What we know:
The chain is built from 13 helices and three strands; from the N terminus they run ααααααβββααααααα. By secondary structure, the chain is mainly alpha-helical. α5 (111-126) packs antiparallel against α7 (172-179). The longest helix has 20 residues, at 50-69.
Amino acid sequence: NSDKKQSTKDNLHSTLAVLNDFRSGLDFKDLTYTFLRDFEQYLREKGNAVNTIAKHMRQLRTLVNEAINQGYMHADAYPFRKYKIKQEKGRHEFLTPDELKKLETVEVEEESMRHVLDAFLFCCYTGLRYSDFCQLTPENFIRINGKRWLYFKSVKTGVEIRLPLHLLFESRALGILDRYPDIGSLVSLPCNSEVNKQLRKLAGLCDIKKRITYHVSRHTCATLLVHQGVAITTVQKLLGHTSVKTTQIYSEVLSSTIVRDLKNVQRKRKKVKMFPDKGLRTSDFIDNR
Protein backbone atom coordinates (compact mmCIF):
# COMPACT_ATOMS: atom_id res chain seq x y z
CA ASN A 1 0.00 0.00 0.00
CA SER A 2 1.68 3.21 -1.18
CA ASP A 3 -0.11 5.24 1.52
CA LYS A 4 1.83 3.53 4.31
CA LYS A 5 5.02 5.03 5.77
CA GLN A 6 8.27 3.48 4.59
CA SER A 7 9.05 2.23 8.10
CA THR A 8 5.68 0.43 8.17
CA LYS A 9 6.38 -1.15 4.78
CA ASP A 10 9.80 -2.29 5.98
CA ASN A 11 8.25 -3.93 9.05
CA LEU A 12 5.64 -5.71 6.93
CA HIS A 13 8.29 -6.99 4.51
CA SER A 14 10.34 -8.24 7.46
CA THR A 15 7.39 -10.27 8.74
CA LEU A 16 6.63 -11.61 5.25
CA ALA A 17 10.23 -12.83 5.00
CA VAL A 18 9.93 -14.64 8.35
CA LEU A 19 6.61 -16.16 7.24
CA ASN A 20 8.24 -17.43 4.06
CA ASP A 21 11.02 -19.04 6.07
CA PHE A 22 8.43 -20.71 8.28
CA ARG A 23 6.18 -21.94 5.50
CA SER A 24 6.61 -20.94 1.87
CA GLY A 25 3.80 -20.78 -0.66
CA LEU A 26 1.16 -19.69 1.85
CA ASP A 27 -2.39 -18.94 0.82
CA PHE A 28 -4.81 -16.81 2.85
CA LYS A 29 -6.92 -19.90 3.57
CA ASP A 30 -3.90 -21.33 5.42
CA LEU A 31 -4.05 -18.55 8.02
CA THR A 32 -6.02 -20.21 10.79
CA TYR A 33 -5.93 -20.08 14.58
CA THR A 34 -3.82 -23.27 14.57
CA PHE A 35 -1.42 -21.69 12.07
CA LEU A 36 -0.96 -18.69 14.37
CA ARG A 37 -0.14 -20.97 17.31
CA ASP A 38 2.36 -22.91 15.20
CA PHE A 39 3.96 -19.70 13.89
CA GLU A 40 4.29 -18.36 17.43
CA GLN A 41 5.96 -21.60 18.52
CA TYR A 42 8.34 -21.41 15.54
CA LEU A 43 9.36 -17.85 16.45
CA ARG A 44 9.88 -18.86 20.08
CA GLU A 45 12.09 -21.80 19.09
CA LYS A 46 14.14 -19.43 16.93
CA GLY A 47 15.02 -17.53 20.10
CA ASN A 48 12.82 -14.47 19.56
CA ALA A 49 11.77 -12.48 22.61
CA VAL A 50 8.10 -12.22 23.56
CA ASN A 51 7.80 -8.64 22.28
CA THR A 52 9.57 -9.49 19.00
CA ILE A 53 7.04 -12.28 18.44
CA ALA A 54 4.25 -9.82 19.29
CA LYS A 55 5.58 -7.38 16.70
CA HIS A 56 5.48 -10.03 13.95
CA MET A 57 1.98 -11.07 15.02
CA ARG A 58 0.74 -7.48 14.85
CA GLN A 59 2.20 -7.14 11.34
CA LEU A 60 0.52 -10.39 10.31
CA ARG A 61 -2.77 -9.15 11.76
CA THR A 62 -2.41 -5.98 9.68
CA LEU A 63 -1.94 -8.07 6.54
CA VAL A 64 -4.96 -10.25 7.39
CA ASN A 65 -7.15 -7.17 8.00
CA GLU A 66 -6.06 -5.74 4.65
CA ALA A 67 -6.81 -9.05 2.93
CA ILE A 68 -10.33 -9.06 4.39
CA ASN A 69 -10.88 -5.43 3.37
CA GLN A 70 -9.83 -6.21 -0.21
CA GLY A 71 -11.91 -9.39 -0.46
CA TYR A 72 -9.08 -11.93 -0.50
CA MET A 73 -10.27 -13.46 2.76
CA HIS A 74 -13.71 -13.88 4.33
CA ALA A 75 -14.35 -12.07 7.61
CA ASP A 76 -15.73 -15.28 9.14
CA ALA A 77 -12.28 -16.85 8.74
CA TYR A 78 -10.57 -14.13 10.79
CA PRO A 79 -7.89 -16.11 12.74
CA PHE A 80 -7.20 -13.42 15.34
CA ARG A 81 -10.71 -13.60 16.80
CA LYS A 82 -9.59 -16.11 19.44
CA TYR A 83 -5.84 -15.66 19.26
CA LYS A 84 -4.42 -13.24 21.84
CA ILE A 85 -1.10 -11.54 21.08
CA LYS A 86 1.11 -11.89 24.15
CA GLN A 87 3.32 -8.99 25.15
CA GLU A 88 5.54 -8.08 28.08
CA LYS A 89 5.91 -4.60 29.46
CA GLY A 90 9.23 -3.42 28.06
CA ARG A 91 11.84 -1.64 30.12
CA HIS A 92 13.26 1.37 28.33
CA GLU A 93 16.98 1.68 29.02
CA PHE A 94 18.23 5.16 29.85
CA LEU A 95 21.34 6.82 31.25
CA THR A 96 21.43 8.31 34.73
CA PRO A 97 22.88 11.82 35.18
CA ASP A 98 26.15 10.25 36.40
CA GLU A 99 26.38 7.94 33.37
CA LEU A 100 25.66 10.82 31.02
CA LYS A 101 28.42 12.83 32.71
CA LYS A 102 30.88 9.99 32.07
CA LEU A 103 30.13 10.12 28.34
CA GLU A 104 30.39 13.90 28.31
CA THR A 105 33.86 13.85 29.85
CA VAL A 106 35.42 10.71 28.33
CA GLU A 107 38.63 11.19 26.32
CA VAL A 108 38.11 10.01 22.74
CA GLU A 109 40.94 10.24 20.21
CA GLU A 110 39.41 8.34 17.29
CA GLU A 111 37.61 10.87 15.08
CA SER A 112 34.80 8.57 13.94
CA MET A 113 34.03 7.55 17.52
CA ARG A 114 34.06 11.19 18.65
CA HIS A 115 31.57 11.96 15.88
CA VAL A 116 29.21 9.17 17.00
CA LEU A 117 29.49 10.31 20.63
CA ASP A 118 28.66 13.92 19.74
CA ALA A 119 25.64 12.81 17.70
CA PHE A 120 24.45 10.57 20.53
CA LEU A 121 24.86 13.33 23.13
CA PHE A 122 23.02 15.80 20.87
CA CYS A 123 20.04 13.42 20.89
CA CYS A 124 20.32 12.95 24.66
CA TYR A 125 19.80 16.73 24.91
CA THR A 126 17.04 16.95 22.28
CA GLY A 127 15.27 13.56 22.28
CA LEU A 128 15.55 13.11 18.51
CA ARG A 129 15.19 9.69 16.93
CA TYR A 130 18.04 8.44 14.75
CA SER A 131 15.85 8.86 11.64
CA ASP A 132 15.01 12.48 12.51
CA PHE A 133 18.58 13.39 13.41
CA CYS A 134 19.99 12.08 10.13
CA GLN A 135 17.62 14.18 8.00
CA LEU A 136 18.40 17.55 9.65
CA THR A 137 19.50 20.43 7.41
CA PRO A 138 20.51 24.05 8.14
CA GLU A 139 16.90 25.05 7.38
CA ASN A 140 15.74 23.19 10.50
CA PHE A 141 17.60 25.65 12.73
CA ILE A 142 16.01 29.08 13.09
CA ARG A 143 16.37 32.07 15.39
CA ILE A 144 13.51 33.50 17.43
CA ASN A 145 14.35 36.66 19.35
CA GLY A 146 18.01 35.86 18.83
CA LYS A 147 17.70 32.35 20.30
CA ARG A 148 18.25 29.16 18.29
CA TRP A 149 15.34 26.75 17.91
CA LEU A 150 15.15 23.41 16.13
CA TYR A 151 12.07 22.90 13.93
CA PHE A 152 11.45 19.60 12.13
CA LYS A 153 8.77 17.12 11.13
CA SER A 154 9.19 13.61 12.52
CA VAL A 155 9.95 10.98 9.89
CA LYS A 156 8.06 8.33 11.87
CA THR A 157 4.91 10.22 12.87
CA GLY A 158 4.79 13.33 10.67
CA VAL A 159 4.34 15.47 13.81
CA GLU A 160 5.96 18.93 13.76
CA ILE A 161 8.32 19.46 16.69
CA ARG A 162 9.79 22.73 18.00
CA LEU A 163 12.71 22.64 20.42
CA PRO A 164 14.14 25.72 22.19
CA LEU A 165 17.76 24.54 22.24
CA HIS A 166 18.84 27.33 24.59
CA LEU A 167 16.46 26.05 27.30
CA LEU A 168 17.27 22.33 27.14
CA PHE A 169 20.02 20.84 29.31
CA GLU A 170 21.88 24.13 29.80
CA SER A 171 22.22 24.68 26.02
CA ARG A 172 24.56 21.69 25.67
CA ALA A 173 23.20 20.82 22.22
CA LEU A 174 24.28 24.27 21.03
CA GLY A 175 27.82 23.56 22.20
CA ILE A 176 27.91 20.50 19.94
CA LEU A 177 26.49 22.44 17.00
CA ASP A 178 29.20 25.06 17.41
CA ARG A 179 31.83 22.35 16.90
CA TYR A 180 30.19 21.38 13.60
CA PRO A 181 29.59 24.58 11.58
CA ASP A 182 28.44 22.35 8.70
CA ILE A 183 25.40 20.51 10.08
CA GLY A 184 25.81 17.90 7.35
CA SER A 185 29.09 16.72 8.87
CA LEU A 186 27.33 16.10 12.20
CA VAL A 187 24.26 14.24 10.92
CA SER A 188 26.10 12.08 8.35
CA LEU A 189 26.30 8.93 10.43
CA PRO A 190 27.05 5.31 9.47
CA CYS A 191 24.17 2.83 9.52
CA ASN A 192 22.36 2.37 12.83
CA SER A 193 23.98 -1.00 13.56
CA GLU A 194 27.49 0.41 13.09
CA VAL A 195 26.66 3.39 15.30
CA ASN A 196 25.45 1.00 18.01
CA LYS A 197 28.75 -0.91 17.86
CA GLN A 198 30.62 2.34 18.47
CA LEU A 199 28.30 3.20 21.35
CA ARG A 200 28.98 -0.15 23.01
CA LYS A 201 32.71 0.58 22.82
CA LEU A 202 32.12 4.00 24.37
CA ALA A 203 30.07 2.43 27.15
CA GLY A 204 32.99 0.12 27.86
CA LEU A 205 35.41 3.05 28.03
CA CYS A 206 33.12 4.72 30.57
CA ASP A 207 32.52 1.54 32.60
CA ILE A 208 28.79 1.75 31.85
CA LYS A 209 27.32 -1.75 32.15
CA LYS A 210 24.09 -1.04 30.26
CA ARG A 211 23.57 -2.11 26.66
CA ILE A 212 23.50 1.25 24.90
CA THR A 213 21.86 1.73 21.52
CA TYR A 214 21.20 5.02 19.74
CA HIS A 215 17.58 5.04 20.89
CA VAL A 216 18.75 5.11 24.51
CA SER A 217 19.46 8.80 23.90
CA ARG A 218 15.73 9.47 23.43
CA HIS A 219 14.82 7.52 26.58
CA THR A 220 17.52 9.41 28.46
CA CYS A 221 16.18 12.78 27.35
CA ALA A 222 12.63 11.94 28.42
CA THR A 223 13.67 10.47 31.76
CA LEU A 224 16.01 13.30 32.72
CA LEU A 225 13.48 15.99 31.77
CA VAL A 226 10.97 14.36 34.12
CA HIS A 227 13.74 14.09 36.72
CA GLN A 228 14.30 17.85 36.38
CA GLY A 229 10.64 18.48 37.17
CA VAL A 230 9.40 19.24 33.64
CA ALA A 231 5.66 18.52 33.33
CA ILE A 232 4.89 15.25 31.54
CA THR A 233 2.67 17.09 29.04
CA THR A 234 5.57 19.39 28.15
CA VAL A 235 7.86 16.39 27.68
CA GLN A 236 5.16 14.93 25.43
CA LYS A 237 5.31 17.99 23.16
CA LEU A 238 9.12 18.05 23.12
CA LEU A 239 9.26 14.41 22.05
CA GLY A 240 6.41 14.76 19.55
CA HIS A 241 4.20 12.08 21.09
CA THR A 242 0.56 12.20 20.01
CA SER A 243 -0.51 10.65 23.33
CA VAL A 244 0.77 11.43 26.81
CA LYS A 245 0.47 7.70 27.58
CA THR A 246 3.44 7.09 25.30
CA THR A 247 5.47 9.65 27.23
CA GLN A 248 4.56 8.06 30.54
CA ILE A 249 5.93 4.75 29.28
CA TYR A 250 9.22 6.40 28.31
CA SER A 251 9.70 8.21 31.61
CA GLU A 252 11.10 6.44 34.65
CA VAL A 253 11.31 7.56 38.27
CA LEU A 254 14.96 7.77 39.27
CA SER A 255 15.92 6.88 42.82
CA SER A 256 17.50 10.32 43.12
CA THR A 257 14.17 11.89 42.15
CA ILE A 258 12.46 10.05 45.01
CA VAL A 259 15.14 11.19 47.47
CA ARG A 260 14.91 14.78 46.22
CA ASP A 261 11.12 14.91 46.53
CA LEU A 262 11.14 13.39 50.02
CA LYS A 263 13.76 15.91 51.13
CA ASN A 264 11.52 18.69 49.83
CA VAL A 265 8.70 17.33 52.01
CA GLN A 266 11.04 17.30 55.01
CA ARG A 267 12.01 20.92 54.41
CA LYS A 268 8.36 21.94 54.27
CA ARG A 269 7.66 20.15 57.54
CA LYS A 270 10.54 21.99 59.18
CA LYS A 271 9.03 25.29 58.03
CA VAL A 272 5.76 24.35 59.69
CA LYS A 273 7.57 23.68 62.98
CA MET A 274 9.42 26.99 62.73
CA PHE A 275 6.32 29.00 61.84
CA PRO A 276 3.35 27.20 63.47
CA ASP A 277 1.15 30.28 63.28
CA LYS A 278 1.09 30.44 59.48
CA GLY A 279 -1.99 28.23 59.22
CA LEU A 280 -0.58 26.01 56.51
CA ARG A 281 -2.93 23.60 54.78
CA THR A 282 -2.35 19.91 54.04
CA SER A 283 -1.58 20.85 50.42
CA ASP A 284 1.45 22.80 51.61
CA PHE A 285 3.13 19.53 52.53
CA ILE A 286 2.75 18.07 49.05
CA ASP A 287 5.25 18.66 46.27
CA ASN A 288 2.94 19.38 43.34
CA ARG A 289 5.62 19.61 40.73
